[in-house]
Amino acid sequence: MSMPRVSERRLFGRLGVGVMLLSCATLAGAQAAADPAQWLSRMRQAATNRTYQGTMAFAAGSQVSSSRVTHISEGRERYERIEALDGQMRQQFRHNGALLTLWPQTRVAIVEQVEPIADFPALPASSQRALESYEIRSIGSDRVAGHEAEVLLLKPRDALRFGQRLWAERETGLLLRTEVLSPRGDVLESASFTDLSIGGKLAPESVLKPMKKKLDGYRVVRPQAQPTQLDAEGWSLKGSVPGFQLLNCVKRPLDAADEAGAELQVLQSVFSDGLTHVSVFIERFDAQRHKPMRTMLGATHSLMNRHGDWWVTIVGDVPMATIQQFEALLQRRP
């Protein structure tokens, strides 16, 4: 199973929320200035309901990358175009839940329907649940990519999660920059706009036209994710990791196949504490492909281990001790 790319998880918001009346922006801004917690809701709404275009930069450990992103909001319709500016060329085009990813160098096209999972510049839907695990306070003002910003500190209430600093654009609430902090206050990873234009009229055709093209010369992959439940697949957690709740559980095909040529599948469960995520992947064990491993890159920790006839991968922007708790609680039903 290929591991999720850290930069993709952290850089691009994929959260669908209801449309916010923009005429309320001034009132919301005044309320948020008085109550730092309300900035979380403003950030979440702005990432989806605003039109913006800019360049994002991401840094974790020795990895540095950047992407150009265009996000268009028209009524209930959302359009997004993302182009990687570093490394192998990659383009993504999204209209609501329909996502097309193109890899021109290898001539691979991935066509899929995706569920909304929040990442920069969005935040998860449960701002209230985040406040159960984090203390939030305003620590001043700053400028990011030419925009005035309110700076917020989210301090974890326990050792199971990392702290974060967030920069929110003063007028719209759009998240401009984020840093994940170690318990000592060191920056583990960061994501930020380096240039940004908010508002204006952008053409949805810049997204729709590439999605309508024939993919001649490309190997087209259409992964089909099936919603399911952990217990329906024979798994459960014999307890809970404090603060984390199950968001969704799906079963999707792997790129690999067994000796008989049958398609293999992986089970993915996503847990959230309202601010960050932990993903648990379960698939059949294959001695040729699977070797126990622990990795760390920036704030992202992952653990891969065998559980009987199964192979479990757990990954998230949380301390390794949190990852280990998820593994210890995971059990196969007899």
Automatic annotation (TrEMBL):
Tagged with keyword Signal: yes
Chain ranges of the MucB/RseB C-terminal domain: 231-327
Compartments it resides in: Periplasm
Signal sequence range: 1-30
Keywords annotated in UniProt: Periplasm, Signal
InterPro entries: MucB/RseB_C, MucB/RseB_C_sf, MucB/RseB_N, MucB_RseB
Domain MucB/RseB N-terminal: 35-207
Family affiliation: Belongs to the RseB family.
Name listed for the protein in its UniProt record: MucB/RseB C-terminal domain-containing protein
Originating species: Pseudaquabacterium terrae
